[in-house]
Amino acid sequence: MYKITRGCKISCGNNSTAAITEEGLYTWGSNNHGQLGDGTNEDSNVPIHIKLPSKPLQVSCGLSYTAVITEKGLYPWWNNTRGQLGDGTIVDSNVPVRIKLPSKPLQVSCGNRYTAVIIEKGLYTWGSSFYGQLGDGNKINSNVPIRIKLPSKPLQVACGYGHTTVMTEKGLYTWGGNRHGQLGDGTNKKKRKPVHIKLPPKVKK
Fold first, then answer.
1. CA dihedral sign, ordered 34, 42, 95, 19
2. Mind listing the pLDDT tens digit for each residue in 18-30?
3. Taking every pair of C-alpha atoms in the chain, what is the biggest distance, in angstroms?
């Protein structure tokens, strides 16, 4: 029997939902590719508890997969066609798999078949790089985490459909697809490496 109580941390993906409660991680919705992480491919219209090796701390749902940070590390699952799980393969998984990282994960964000995670030693990305959204300077997919060079310590990261934004101690940086100006650098050209974004000065009251 599931039980949702106070203290939820939630994320919504492509027809699926994930929530962290005091009792653990719960998912529900579409499960045709194993996105719920319960080891089956059956949809669920009620929350189901997902088995994890330790307490979940943060969860993020992407277009085709889910990732959760626990006290013992990072665990993603579901579609892996672009290597977005980061386990060194392109094999799907309908249960959480542990990803090897150089240090403790602090925050994860899932986008369109690619992942970004801030760890104690910096920012790492992997998965699809069609738009250059990994930020390593090329458009080659990666099924393992790669470190992204930044001018200072990353504080928060967010993944979109094909572009990435990170807040660092020295300001905001973006990269990836830019057809609609989503990078904010005054152009419509995609960038394969982080570019510094100038934000407006503080408005005087």
1. positive
2. 999 989 999 999 9
3. 56
